[in-house]
């Protein structure tokens, strides 16, 4: 099969890490008989430099015409880069928000997996880390408190701020279906995280998700209150498979789940819309402090490419091959600077890409 992939390398370490992911995809293509065409697009600071804006209509339209988007990261040093002297709507991050909106990406997926070889980076108790964990945090991205009506005004002589949290059943159902579909590709367990003892919106999440669960008899469905989930993530993360939750709870819990893996350079992510289309990117930023030095860890981006194969193209065997190749290089002891313990030999960004590509 032939796939057209919009490649948004972006700023900072973006070009270095996306190039490695492309290398690995080409290796997958050779082995399994696929062709991946990369359509290079500008977004973020590099687009400001060329086009005067962080995102153009042309970039949006071209991205839409592709089968998926593979992204590096955008933005520069927020204290020193001239991009941050521009008004907020012209800054690099506005490009990212703009493309997410234009592509109608409503489901954010962030796997949190503890590699046995990197257990020492895990900040949890040794006996907890020893059990390992492998979960998929699924966060609703376009509704809830961050998008509700808000205002601050004086009411009865007292300054009062109001934020509103709104979800309708359609917004909940579409992401719940995705969560159960994804669970079917994993260990077949979905935990809905909410605050149904207090919030009406959470009670609607429970009702609609229960209805969706009825269509997936093979998948175990559990509910958990958000405060309990925050505790369980540090006490017993091995219990989770797919964790489904609304926007703000997901914002906080997905960072907590990332933190317990101990390494930002290892964490991929995906944002999906109602079709198979998705935008795949590492969880970290553009790391201006190490940009251009060929020392960034490309694994998060390479694993984002694996997610693209699995969730947009249904190429599960090929995605497995990438994930296995990553595990293999770690088992063999290769480390980039961010995951190397003191005294351990380090490989450069492009060497890590070569090592993984060679093990496909
Ligand atoms: P960051 O994630 O870029 O960097 C935080 C730390 O992690 C740095 O020390 C960096 O060197 C390290 N790091 C990150 N990715 C790494 C990798 N692959 N390999 C090795 N080390 C890695 O976060 P920041 O410094 O807060 O932000 C820098 C810029 O990135 C800002 O302009 C910010 O707006 C932008 N940003 C972009 C995205 C995105 O494109 N989705 C996400 C977050 C931040």
Short description:
The chain has 360 residues and is α/β, with parallel strands linked by helices.
What does this 3D model show about the protein?
The chain has 360 residues and is an alpha/beta fold. The chain has helices spanning 14-32, 45-51, 57-65, 92-102, 126-131, 169-184, 200-213, 226-235, 247-261, 299-311, 316-331, 349-358; strands spanning 2-10, 35-41, 68-73, 107-113, 134-140, 150-155, 158-163, 189-194, 220-225, 242-245, 268-272, 278-282. The relative contact order is 0.16. It has twelve helices and twelve strands. The longest helix is centred in the N-terminal third of the chain and has 19 residues, at 14-32. The chain folds into two domains: 1-114 and 265-360, Isopropylmalate Dehydrogenase (3-Layer(aba) Sandwich), CATH 3.40.718; 123-260, 3-Layer(aba) Sandwich (Isopropylmalate Dehydrogenase), CATH 3.40.718. It is 41% helix and 21% strand. The chain is globular and about 60 Å long. The strands form two sheets. Strands 2-1-3-12-11-4-5-10-8-9 form a ten-stranded mixed sheet, sandwiched between helices. The chain has a two-stranded antiparallel ribbon with strand order 6-7. Residues 13, 17, 73-76, 78, 93, 96, 264-265, 281, 284-290, 296-297, 300, 338 line the site of nicotinamide-adenine-dinucleotide.
């Amino acid at each position: 099969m032939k796939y057209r992939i919009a490649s948004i390398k972006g700023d900072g370490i973006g070009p270095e890490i996306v190039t490695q992911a492309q290398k690995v995809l080409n290796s997958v293509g050779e082995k399994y008989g696929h062709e991946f065409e990369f359509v290079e697009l500008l977004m973020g600071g590099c687009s400001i430099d060329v086009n005067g804006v962080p995102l153009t209509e042309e970039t949006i339209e071209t991205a839409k015409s592709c089968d998926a988007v593979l992204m590096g990261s955008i933005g520069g040093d927020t204290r020193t880069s001239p991009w941050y002297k521009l008004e907020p709507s012209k800054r690099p991050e506005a490009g990212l928000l703009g493309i997410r909106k234009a592509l109608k990406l409503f489901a954010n997926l962030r796997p949190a997996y503890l590699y046995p070889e990197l257990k020492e980076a895990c900040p949890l108790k040794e006996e907890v880390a020893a059990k390992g964990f492998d979960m998929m945090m699924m966060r609703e991205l376009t509704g809830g408190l961050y998008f509700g009506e808000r205002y601050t005004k004086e009411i009865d002589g007292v300054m009062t701020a109001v934020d509103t949290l709104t979800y309708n059943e359609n917004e909940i159902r579409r992401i719940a279906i995705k969560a159960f579909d994804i669970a079917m590709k994993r260990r077949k367990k979905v935990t809905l995280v909410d605050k149904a003892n207090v919030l009406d919106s959470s009670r609607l999440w429970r009702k609609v998700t229960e209805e969706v669960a009825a269509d997936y008899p093979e998948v175990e469905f559990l509910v958990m209150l958000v405060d309990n989930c925050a505790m369980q993530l540090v006490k017993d993360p091995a219990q989770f498979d797919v964790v489904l939750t609304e926007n703000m709870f997901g914002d906080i819990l997905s960072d907590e789940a990332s933190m317990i893996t101990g390494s930002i350079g290892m964490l991929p992510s995906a944002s999906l819309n109602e079709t198979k289309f998705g935008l795949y990117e590492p969880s970290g930023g553009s790391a201006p402090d190490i940009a251009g030095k060929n020392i960034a860890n490309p694994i998060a981006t390479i694993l984002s490419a694996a997610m693209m194969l699995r969730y947009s193209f249904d190429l599960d065997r090929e995605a497995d091959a990438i994930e296995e190749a990553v595990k293999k290089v770690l088992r063999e002891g290769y480390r980039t600077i961010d995951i190397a313990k003191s005294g351990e030999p380090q490989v450069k960004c492009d060497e890590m890409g070569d090592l993984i590509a060679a093990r496909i």
